[in-house]
Amino acid sequence: MKPRLKKTVVMVGMMGAGKSAVGKELAAVLGVPFLDSDAEIERAANATIAEIFARDGEAFFRDKEAQVIARLLDGEPCVLSVGGGAFLRAETRRRVSAFGVSVWLKADLDTLWARVRRKDTRPLLKTANPYRTLAELMAAREPAYAEADLIVATTADYAIETTAEKVVEALALRPDVLSVPELPGKP
Ligand SMILES: Nc1ncnc2c1ncn2[C@@H]1O[C@H](COP(=O)(O)OP(=O)(O)OP(=O)(O)O)[C@@H](O)[C@H]1O
Ligand SMILES: O=C(O)C1=C[C@@H](O)[C@@H](O)[C@H](O)C1
Ligand SMILES: [Mg+2]
Protein backbone atom coordinates (compact mmCIF):
# COMPACT_ATOMS: atom_id res chain seq x y z
CA MET A 1 0.00 0.00 0.00
CA LYS A 2 1.18 3.53 -0.79
CA PRO A 3 1.51 6.27 1.82
CA ARG A 4 -1.48 8.62 1.75
CA LEU A 5 -1.00 12.38 1.59
CA LYS A 6 -3.54 14.30 3.67
CA LYS A 7 -2.39 17.89 3.04
CA THR A 8 -0.80 19.69 0.13
CA VAL A 9 2.99 19.82 0.40
CA VAL A 10 4.26 23.29 -0.52
CA MET A 11 7.90 23.41 -1.60
CA VAL A 12 9.54 26.74 -0.73
CA GLY A 13 13.07 28.12 -0.97
CA MET A 14 15.49 29.95 -3.20
CA MET A 15 15.59 29.79 -6.97
CA GLY A 16 17.68 26.81 -7.98
CA ALA A 17 16.99 24.90 -4.74
CA GLY A 18 15.15 22.31 -6.81
CA LYS A 19 11.57 23.06 -5.77
CA SER A 20 10.27 22.23 -9.25
CA ALA A 21 12.62 19.32 -10.00
CA VAL A 22 12.34 17.66 -6.57
CA GLY A 23 8.63 18.54 -6.25
CA LYS A 24 7.85 16.70 -9.47
CA GLU A 25 9.74 13.60 -8.32
CA LEU A 26 8.11 13.77 -4.86
CA ALA A 27 4.64 13.91 -6.43
CA ALA A 28 5.45 10.82 -8.52
CA VAL A 29 6.66 8.93 -5.43
CA LEU A 30 3.54 9.89 -3.45
CA GLY A 31 1.22 9.26 -6.41
CA VAL A 32 -0.35 12.73 -6.28
CA PRO A 33 -0.55 15.55 -8.85
CA PHE A 34 2.32 18.02 -9.21
CA LEU A 35 1.59 21.71 -9.57
CA ASP A 36 3.96 24.65 -9.93
CA SER A 37 2.81 28.21 -9.31
CA ASP A 38 5.29 29.65 -11.85
CA ALA A 39 4.01 27.28 -14.55
CA GLU A 40 0.37 28.03 -13.66
CA ILE A 41 0.98 31.78 -13.94
CA GLU A 42 2.78 31.38 -17.27
CA ARG A 43 -0.06 29.25 -18.61
CA ALA A 44 -2.79 31.67 -17.47
CA ALA A 45 -0.94 34.71 -18.84
CA ASN A 46 0.31 32.90 -21.94
CA ALA A 47 3.64 34.58 -21.27
CA THR A 48 6.93 33.68 -19.57
CA ILE A 49 7.79 34.93 -16.08
CA ALA A 50 10.44 37.21 -17.63
CA GLU A 51 7.82 38.69 -19.99
CA ILE A 52 5.36 39.25 -17.13
CA PHE A 53 8.02 41.01 -15.03
CA ALA A 54 9.02 43.20 -17.99
CA ARG A 55 5.47 44.03 -19.11
CA ASP A 56 3.49 44.25 -15.85
CA GLY A 57 6.16 44.61 -13.17
CA GLU A 58 7.11 42.53 -10.13
CA ALA A 59 4.27 43.82 -7.91
CA PHE A 60 1.68 42.57 -10.42
CA PHE A 61 3.42 39.20 -10.61
CA ARG A 62 3.46 38.90 -6.80
CA ASP A 63 -0.29 39.56 -6.58
CA LYS A 64 -1.02 36.95 -9.26
CA GLU A 65 1.31 34.50 -7.53
CA ALA A 66 -0.51 34.90 -4.19
CA GLN A 67 -3.91 34.42 -5.92
CA VAL A 68 -2.77 31.32 -7.81
CA ILE A 69 -1.34 29.73 -4.65
CA ALA A 70 -4.56 30.44 -2.71
CA ARG A 71 -6.56 28.76 -5.49
CA LEU A 72 -4.27 25.73 -5.75
CA LEU A 73 -4.30 25.21 -1.97
CA ASP A 74 -8.03 24.79 -2.22
CA GLY A 75 -7.79 21.58 -4.26
CA GLU A 76 -7.05 17.94 -3.46
CA PRO A 77 -3.74 17.20 -1.65
CA CYS A 78 -0.86 17.52 -4.10
CA VAL A 79 2.72 18.70 -4.28
CA LEU A 80 2.83 22.42 -5.02
CA SER A 81 6.15 24.06 -5.84
CA VAL A 82 5.99 27.82 -5.57
CA GLY A 83 8.18 30.61 -6.93
CA GLY A 84 11.23 31.56 -4.87
CA GLY A 85 9.64 34.81 -3.65
CA ALA A 86 6.16 33.52 -2.84
CA PHE A 87 6.77 32.60 0.80
CA LEU A 88 7.93 36.14 1.59
CA ARG A 89 4.31 37.29 1.68
CA ALA A 90 2.92 36.88 5.21
CA GLU A 91 -0.60 36.20 3.92
CA THR A 92 0.72 33.32 1.77
CA ARG A 93 2.64 31.89 4.75
CA ARG A 94 -0.57 31.98 6.80
CA ARG A 95 -2.59 30.27 4.07
CA VAL A 96 0.02 27.58 3.53
CA SER A 97 0.19 26.91 7.26
CA ALA A 98 -3.63 26.72 7.49
CA PHE A 99 -4.24 24.47 4.47
CA GLY A 100 -0.98 22.69 3.71
CA VAL A 101 2.46 21.88 5.01
CA SER A 102 5.55 23.81 3.90
CA VAL A 103 8.95 22.31 3.19
CA TRP A 104 11.98 24.59 2.89
CA LEU A 105 14.38 23.05 0.44
CA LYS A 106 17.56 24.54 1.82
CA ALA A 107 20.67 24.64 -0.36
CA ASP A 108 23.97 26.46 0.04
CA LEU A 109 24.80 29.48 -2.11
CA ASP A 110 27.27 27.75 -4.41
CA THR A 111 24.87 24.89 -5.14
CA LEU A 112 22.17 27.43 -6.02
CA TRP A 113 24.57 29.40 -8.18
CA ALA A 114 25.74 26.33 -10.08
CA ARG A 115 22.10 25.58 -10.94
CA VAL A 116 20.91 29.07 -11.92
CA ARG A 117 23.98 30.56 -13.59
CA ARG A 118 23.44 29.01 -17.00
CA LYS A 119 19.79 30.02 -17.39
CA ASP A 120 18.62 33.55 -18.14
CA THR A 121 14.96 32.86 -17.27
CA ARG A 122 15.08 34.51 -13.82
CA PRO A 123 14.48 38.25 -14.10
CA LEU A 124 15.71 39.06 -10.58
CA LEU A 125 19.18 37.80 -11.54
CA LYS A 126 19.56 40.12 -14.53
CA THR A 127 21.94 42.41 -12.64
CA ALA A 128 25.57 43.45 -13.07
CA ASN A 129 26.65 40.88 -10.47
CA PRO A 130 24.08 38.06 -10.34
CA TYR A 131 26.12 35.96 -7.87
CA ARG A 132 26.08 38.83 -5.38
CA THR A 133 22.36 39.40 -6.02
CA LEU A 134 21.68 35.73 -5.32
CA ALA A 135 23.67 35.97 -2.05
CA GLU A 136 21.78 39.12 -1.01
CA LEU A 137 18.38 37.61 -1.82
CA MET A 138 19.30 34.48 0.13
CA ALA A 139 20.36 36.46 3.22
CA ALA A 140 17.23 38.64 3.10
CA ARG A 141 14.87 35.70 2.59
CA GLU A 142 16.16 33.10 5.00
CA PRO A 143 14.12 34.39 7.98
CA ALA A 144 10.90 33.90 5.97
CA TYR A 145 11.90 30.45 4.68
CA ALA A 146 12.82 29.47 8.25
CA GLU A 147 9.12 29.74 9.12
CA ALA A 148 8.43 26.64 7.02
CA ASP A 149 7.01 23.62 8.87
CA LEU A 150 9.82 21.32 7.73
CA ILE A 151 13.37 21.91 6.52
CA VAL A 152 15.17 19.55 4.17
CA ALA A 153 18.79 20.29 3.34
CA THR A 154 20.13 19.51 -0.12
CA THR A 155 23.64 19.85 -1.49
CA ALA A 156 25.25 19.55 -4.89
CA ASP A 157 25.94 15.86 -4.13
CA TYR A 158 22.27 14.92 -3.76
CA ALA A 159 20.49 13.56 -6.80
CA ILE A 160 16.92 14.80 -7.31
CA GLU A 161 15.63 11.35 -6.24
CA THR A 162 17.72 11.40 -3.03
CA THR A 163 16.33 14.78 -2.01
CA ALA A 164 12.78 13.64 -2.78
CA GLU A 165 13.35 10.62 -0.51
CA LYS A 166 14.56 12.94 2.27
CA VAL A 167 11.36 14.94 1.93
CA VAL A 168 9.29 11.74 2.20
CA GLU A 169 11.22 10.83 5.37
CA ALA A 170 10.50 14.27 6.87
CA LEU A 171 6.80 14.04 5.94
CA ALA A 172 6.53 10.53 7.37
CA LEU A 173 7.30 11.97 10.82
CA ARG A 174 4.06 13.95 10.56
CA PRO A 175 1.04 11.57 10.73
CA ASP A 176 -1.27 14.55 10.22
CA VAL A 177 0.35 15.01 6.78
CA LEU A 178 1.30 11.55 5.55
CA SER A 179 -0.17 8.26 6.70
CA VAL A 180 2.31 5.46 6.18
CA PRO A 181 0.57 2.05 6.23
CA GLU A 182 1.73 -0.46 8.84
CA LEU A 183 3.72 -3.36 7.44
CA PRO A 184 1.62 -6.55 7.28
CA GLY A 185 2.35 -8.99 10.08
CA LYS A 186 3.51 -6.29 12.50
CA PRO A 187 2.07 -6.97 15.98
N1 LIG B 1 20.35 17.31 -7.36
C1 LIG B 1 19.53 18.22 -7.86
N2 LIG B 1 18.49 18.64 -7.14
C2 LIG B 1 17.68 19.59 -7.65
N3 LIG B 1 17.84 20.19 -8.85
C3 LIG B 1 18.87 19.78 -9.61
C4 LIG B 1 19.75 18.80 -9.13
N4 LIG B 1 20.67 18.63 -10.06
C5 LIG B 1 20.39 19.46 -11.07
N5 LIG B 1 19.29 20.16 -10.81
C6 LIG B 1 18.73 21.16 -11.74
O1 LIG B 1 18.80 22.45 -11.15
C7 LIG B 1 17.90 23.32 -11.85
C8 LIG B 1 17.16 24.21 -10.88
O2 LIG B 1 16.17 23.48 -10.22
P1 LIG B 1 14.62 23.98 -10.19
O3 LIG B 1 14.23 24.66 -11.44
O4 LIG B 1 13.87 22.78 -9.74
O5 LIG B 1 14.70 25.07 -9.02
P2 LIG B 1 13.54 25.90 -8.36
O6 LIG B 1 13.78 25.82 -6.90
O7 LIG B 1 12.23 25.41 -8.86
O8 LIG B 1 13.83 27.38 -8.86
P3 LIG B 1 12.79 28.61 -9.16
O9 LIG B 1 12.50 29.26 -7.84
O10 LIG B 1 13.55 29.53 -10.06
O11 LIG B 1 11.57 28.03 -9.81
C9 LIG B 1 16.97 22.39 -12.67
O12 LIG B 1 17.38 22.46 -14.01
C10 LIG B 1 17.25 21.02 -12.07
O13 LIG B 1 17.01 19.98 -12.97
O1 LIG C 1 13.00 33.97 -6.31
C1 LIG C 1 12.17 34.65 -6.95
O2 LIG C 1 11.74 35.74 -6.55
C2 LIG C 1 11.65 34.10 -8.21
C3 LIG C 1 11.79 32.75 -8.47
C4 LIG C 1 11.16 32.09 -9.61
O3 LIG C 1 10.58 30.86 -9.15
C5 LIG C 1 10.09 32.95 -10.27
O4 LIG C 1 8.91 32.97 -9.48
C6 LIG C 1 10.57 34.35 -10.47
O5 LIG C 1 11.70 34.29 -11.33
C7 LIG C 1 10.94 35.01 -9.13
MG1 LIG D 1 10.62 26.30 -9.88
From TrEMBL:
The record's free-text note on cofactor binding: Binds 1 Mg(2+) ion per subunit.
Residues annotated to bind ATP: 16-21, 122
Recorded metabolic or biological pathway in which this protein acts: Metabolic intermediate biosynthesis; chorismate biosynthesis; chorismate from D-erythrose 4-phosphate and phosphoenolpyruvate: step 5/7
EC assignment: 2.7.1.71
An example Gene Ontology biological process: aromatic amino acid family biosynthetic process
Reaction(s) the record says it catalyses: shikimate + ATP = 3-phosphoshikimate + ADP + H(+)
Cell compartment(s), UniProt: Cytoplasm
Chief place of localization: cytoplasm
Binding site for substrate: 38, 62, 84, 141
Residues passing through the membrane, by range: none
Cofactor(s) this protein cannot do without: Mg(2+)
CC per GO annotation: cytosol
Source superkingdom: Bacteria
This protein's record includes keyword Amino-acid biosynthesis: yes
Gene3D superfamilies xref list: P-loop containing nucleotide triphosphate hydrolases
Subunit structure: Monomer.
Function statement: Catalyzes the specific phosphorylation of the 3-hydroxyl group of shikimic acid using ATP as a cosubstrate.
Name of this protein: Shikimate kinase
